Amino acid sequence: MEIVLTFAIGVLTASGVWLLLRPRTFQVIMGLSLLSYAVNLFIFCTGRLAVDAPPVIAGDGIVDPLQYADPVPQSLVLTAIVIGFATTALFLVVILAARGMTGTDHVDGQERDR
Amino acid sequence: MNAWLRHLPVLPIVVPLITGALLLLFAESRRWPRLLITLIATVTQLAAAVTMIWLTTDSVPDVWSRGIGVYAIGGWQAPFGIVLVVDRLSALMIAVNVTLALAVTVYSIGRWDRMGVHYHSLLQFLLMGLNGAFLTGDLFNLFVFFEILLAASYALLLHGGGPQRTKMALHFIAVNLTAAFAFLIGVAMIYSVVGTLNMAEIAWKWRELPLEDRSIAQAGAAILGIAFLVKAAAFPLNFWLPGAYHAAGAPVAAIFTITTKVGVYAILRAGSLLEDASAPFGGAWLFYIALATMVIGIVGMLASRQLPRLVAFVVILSSGTILAAVGSGEPSMVAPALFYMLGSVFATAAFFMLTGMAERMRTAATDPGDRAATPPPTYTAFSVGEPPDPFAPDDEVGVALPAAMAFLGLAFVCCALLVTGMPPLAGFIAKFALVAAAIDALPSQGGWSREWLLIFVLIAGGLAGLIALMRVGMRLFWSTTGRQTPRLSITEAAPVAFLILMCLAITVAAGPTMTYLDSAAAGLADPQLYIHTVLNLTRGATP
Fold it and tell me: Does a structural domain hold residue B169?
């Protein structure tokens, strides 16, 4: 499972960075979205991968922490998703405004001279 | 009384949050109630900040122990809950921030707050993010406050609309989103091995990390540092800055001068807590990066033809100067660097405001960012009526100022003296203190040392700034073609005068200011007190 997750994060990051460096605004926002997925997965796996382990400790008495997943990265991911969602939405609006004002979807607002 | 004072640290976050939300309930046309609420809220924050500075000097010993205030949000003690920590540095930063915000708010009354919607709300949210970033003692919470201040700054940068601003906002958002991802990766890596997000506890456990975890934590700290350096506009991560600050409206650019200092603050704080951390918090290369930043600032100043762009490069130069002083690794240089920061934040902010007024001296506006072809899109989107024409000649509030040209010229000279570090104003004292500290740090047996490099670049920066500003100033004030005397209202001129007077005040009170900054720097040099106070440990405890 570790190998699969590692490859997923790596491929997402690589594609995200490549798209981020492209000149079209749509490519940039796709790149940022892929990067945010990669980062979210990365945060999630810092709590160690565990199957069938609940993050919330139930009951009283002595509990074995090894039976439970780390809840902190899960809450961090939740926050990061919400913030990333909001900023991506804002970025989308700015991209649309830039497209409307400049008449091109180039990130510099004008095509490069060939 | 003391029980209430304990809740003081949360005020600079809660007050702007509530104010920003409250302002949304008022229609855009009801200007005066909105302005009144904004001003009351800003003054309240200023009072809170000044009280916090007063408390950190141990004048009231039973409120905070030894100048560090810890506020556990919701009563959850560190490291389980999120804590706010006030020490001398953060109290000072909040005071600077709110003072600047007060000036910017008053400046915006003239015209800027009508060029788009929700201006004052956004300003308050920006304040909330900035104050929170200065206060928080939790790494992830720092990220959240960074995002709050960034989200507000995106909208503020777009304030007023126009193709130029939209284009620059596009770049600004893309760069800052990428930096936010770097921040998250860094935080996640540090959490994965240290197992905590509380900055004091990270620092406490940092030394005891096993070797195999250590490299991961170091790498995480380095990635975190990249995010901070983007914010602090360090070379080569600063190419977003001149365009964005140039395109932004004058008051927005003025408040943005403090947002670069958040990055500097974060580097100072993290560098203080993580004692033997990797670059950029330790090691030599922050120094050289900072020197490169200064050189970029110098070259950019000389190459700029427009005043706002020139001032943007001054911001880069001042960021570089502070980072170089911090990166030199000499604890004696931190206090002069903080003094320099005080002066340069006020001076560059005043300069940006001055720029907004000087723009109107030209009879034909040539700046595409200033003369929007279309009305600000927010007006149509929120359907709050027709936007006022911001360039209408009689679109002024309050009394027009007599002797406008004399005021502009005098303010220009003061700002130029301040940012280039010429006597007799605060800039000179700061540069003098920096050079003196650098000379003290020279090796006693003589020979080449990298402090020489710093002294050389510092003085070259002053000279280059003087040349560039003289050139622009001559064209601005002495050329007679295509110029008109602008109508200045009191509300625009007073904030500029206020900020310059603040610089004058720290020049006159340089002794007490320096004493305070010395103790702030001493707190950074010895983080044990911070760590022990936050974690509520007895001295000498080991992880």
Answer: yes
